[in-house]
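User: Design a sequence. Structure:
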């Protein structure tokens, strides 16, 4: 679906753009399968994971777990500061 006359919001790459040649991990997998008499016709679907634009596994994991940390920390500080500023509810739980 095209919106506001700007064209598609993304382009879907053609399957022929993905090739395992030059990706050592996938080439090794292909050889190991061939030694067992097997072939994975869908192995090219894993090629995108090794594209430099997606980073290493560690970089992707770091991005996944820490993506919202700066915003969350800033909002926490702002909430605590606002609570202190307006004199918030007394949090002394010693009296019942």
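Assistant: Done.
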């Amino acid at each position: 679906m095209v919106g506001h006359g700007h064209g598609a919001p993304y382009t879907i790459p053609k399957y022929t753009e993905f090739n395992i040649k030059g990706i050592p991990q996938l080439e090794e997998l292909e050889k190991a399968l061939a030694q067992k008499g097997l072939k994975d016709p869908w192995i090219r679907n894993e090629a995108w994971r090794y594209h430099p634009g997606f980073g290493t596994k560690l970089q992707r994991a770091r991005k996944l777990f820490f993506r919202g940390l700066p915003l969350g920390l800033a909002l926490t500080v702002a909430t605590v500061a606002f609570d202190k500023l307006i004199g918030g509810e007394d949090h002394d739980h010693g009296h019942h």
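The chain has a mean pLDDT of 83. The chain has one domain: 15-87.
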